[in-house]
Give the backbone structure.
Amino acid sequence: MTETSDVVIIGSGIVGSSVAYHLAEQGCTDVLIIEREAHQGKGSTGKSMGGVRAQFSTPVNIEMSRYSIDFFSRFDEVVGHPADYRAHGYLFCATSERHLEYLTANRERQIALGVTNVELVSREDIAAFVPQLRVDDIIGGTFCQTDGFVDPHSVMMGFMLKARERGARLWLDTPVTGIEVEPVSAGSAGILPAFLPKEAGILPALPAQRISGVMTSRGFVSTRIVVNAAGPWAAEVARMAGAELPLEPLRRQLVPTEPFAGLPKRFPMVIDMSTGFHFRREGKGILLAWNDPDETPGFKTDFDPAFVEKILTRAADRVPALAEAEVNPRRAWAGLYEMTPDHHAIIGPAPNVEGLYFVNGFSGHGVMHSPASGRISADLILRGHSDLIEASQLSVARFAQGRLLEETAVL
Ligand SMILES: Cc1cc2nc3c(=O)[nH]c(=O)nc-3n(C[C@H](O)[C@H](O)[C@H](O)COP(=O)(O)OP(=O)(O)OC[C@H]3O[C@@H](n4cnc5c(N)ncnc54)[C@H](O)[C@@H]3O)c2cc1C
């Protein structure tokens, strides 16, 4: 007997799990999530630094963060599982007038969009957060208390557990190997599943193809709706249906120190804007991060031991005490950002394949934006629009139409 499902989600990371949760919350429970790994979280979600922040530069990212951070603050109560949200704040430190003007302009935009607790801070304020920071060249910055961290694994599991409690099914250890499409015949208005209201699935241009199912290692699953939540692998999943996604994987490396008592027990994520180096406390140690400008796109997930010296140089320059911190390179790790040309997510229907939905390309922000992206995707699938944001801004069509949304606050 052929398996059927109203919706198939490919990928069970934090994003696919959130889409499943939000569909189930909106009453769509015949959902099958298909994951090729034996466990959830083996993609980018399990590699994440867990940072969440509303301090972005574009309205759409600020709006997605505002919704998501509010969601994280209520996650335990609403979802019934812990998110481990810690409102320790993000502290951006500027060493040039240009950077300070940039932070000030972003802050005005953030406040106008309802993130009213972003403060301008002085060099002295910054030194009070982390007295060990070298502040001689810092001229000011911004701080937002409700920015902070979550545990990505807990959030992913919480979304998935709740979706499954509502009836969604999860297949682990099951690669999707193909997506089947068929021609849309003229006048085929009745093709949408019965559970969808009439206005759902309306696309800007009439696609020539529609989804008929997915091929997996367990056999064929018949469905009219496929959600591509395959993280850095999303472009290859899109190609299975004959669709294009402008998305490239980019390695990102993190270095934890051994237990280190030379910094406060609690402090915000600190971002040195002169180098992009940033760090936060992780248990008894410190988690160090830096976006190496020499990194090139590709599926590279090995940690490069030469990175340790590069990052420690930046760390000791900004926090001289960190020169004393011990690092075991075997505890460091690498994962993949899923980069788009304008560093914004791609959310919504594929223009050329009816029933195919993208929720991809978070460019390093997929954990923090997982609540908003799950909600927007569920809205688009079930109603054809979302009242959370004007979702067409994030449509893949923006690249062909030259409507790019450049985000400059990428860490
Ligand atoms: C080092 C690092 C630090 C980061 N720090 C942050 C941070 O501080 N804050 C933040 O918000 N974001 C951060 N990110 C980004 C964030 O982790 C990602 O944006 C997010 O996890 C994407 O989630 P996802 O569910 O889309 O993808 P993934 O977690 O990669 O999940 C995709 C899933 O799809 C599955 N899959 C792929 N192809 C198939 C197939 N053919 N069949 C079946 N299954 C398939 C994969 O196995 C995988 O489980 C970081 C990323 C890295 C690498």
